[in-house]
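Backbone Fold Data
Goal — fold tokens
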Amino acid sequence: MPQPETRTDTATTGAPAAIDEPTRRALIEALAQAMFAHADELTALDQAIGDGDHGLNMKRGFEAALADVDGLAAKPLPDGLKAMGMTLVMKVGGASGPLYGTLFMTLGKALPVEPDRANLVAAFGAAIDAVKARGKSDFGQKTMLDVLGPVHEALAEGSDPKAAADNAAEATIPMLATRGRASFLGERSIGHMDPGARSSALMVAAIADVLEQG
């Protein structure tokens, strides 16, 4: 009698044994639905300390990704990530497109076709470094990096990346923005969640939910 496919516990390892085509499709769809469902929230956050277009921009980028879900999911994981990154660069306006595009493209360059937890931790670290370089930014400046860094630590430690992402996004509320559009507000940036941190946390949750179900 055939044995069911064995998949590792993503809460422990951070990645399943294999991310097959149906899983890649589910990941793209989950990311898109997270951005669609929270577009108004992201817009409101950005209206407080930014240009007010983060929700619309992220929605537009993932509408384009979802329109090409068949092609993206059919590609091997590294190629699909790079193609996703290029889509976001081209379709998401403002600073978010290049930054999220860099994140996905670097993951695609760094990950093997069937990653394990060690591969994921290393690739995610490389992607964070690439985002830092692209945005000329670092941790503690009230940006998406303030979520990506704690998520990387959680993956390395084998702890819950979703909890790390949610807590890190909340932690940007009392921070003073020193990079990005919000930095122009100075002290007035304090008391608001960074929209890029929130969209990053939403992405982490969407990805984790799909992989945990796998």
